[in-house]
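Lab intake sheet, docking and co-folding queue.

SAMPLE TYPE: protein with bound small molecule
LIGAND NAME: zinc ion
LIGAND FORMAT: SMILES
REQUESTED OUTPUT: full 3D complex as structure tokens
PRIORITY: normal
SUBMITTED BY: R.K., bench team

The fields below were copied directly from the construct record.
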Amino acid sequence: MPELPEVEIVVRGLRQTVVGETIERVHLNNTPPASIVVSDSFKGGGFARALAGRKILDVTRRGKNILISLSGDVTLWAHLKMTGHFFYRDKSLPIDKHDLVIFDFRSGRKSKDGLNLRFNDYRRFGRLRLFPNDELWEQDGLKALGPEPLNLSADGFVILCTGKIRMIKPALLDQTFIAGLGNIYTDETLYLSRLHPRRLVSSVSRRKLVELHGHIQDILKFAIHKMGTSVDSFSSVNGQAGQFQKYLKAYGNEGKPCERCNAKIIREKIGSRSAHFCPRCQRI
Ligand SMILES: [Zn+2]
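RESULT FIELD (auto-filled):
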């Protein structure tokens, strides 16, 4: 699943390509009804009709959410979930059966004529939601998001963790605790910090929490620099794969030797998710 760095790469790609464009027409291509949510405020019009004629003003990220700000005080809110992608492609390329929504733009900006934006999602868990701006932040999935890890100071992180009697891996995955981390980057940061994923947050020393905060920020920045991690299908809007998978030390390395101590990295279910860690360096 795309996490903060991958979503950031998509947001930057969208900013470079479609900001300033005006949506002329939106085509739905056998789109499953669940893929799209439209506020009741757009009475009777439906998704495609509510989008036509709107200009793309900006694209931003909050956690793993993509917020496409449109004219008329409306936001197209996208979540990629497992395999959602935005591709900015030549119009003449055939429509893929997983191109669920196709956005055509009004021509006029000469360099970009002939390209359209496609929301492609073969697992179909991704969501596109359309809301007036004044309803947006009341929605589940946005209203209770925790802080952004790259904007959070070490002190802020320590305060966030203080008194939290819960295991550290599920806490870091909880989007209402901290927004944007998923399985890959939690495994990697806990490995670098030598913290067992089942360790209780409240039992971690202040010094160790400051260290963990540093690893979270460093790894997210480095992964953004490497255009994200492509272990599944992730790619940017121009189809380019990420490179951070070459640097993974714990995630996906089950059975391989730990770089530090040579013990085998193990994978264990914790809650509903699996954690990869070194049983020797990451003692509980
Ligand atoms: Zn080790």
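REVIEWER NOTE: The domain at 4-136 is CATH 3.20.190.10 (N-terminal domain of MutM-like DNA repair proteins).
SIGN-OFF: pending second check by T.M.
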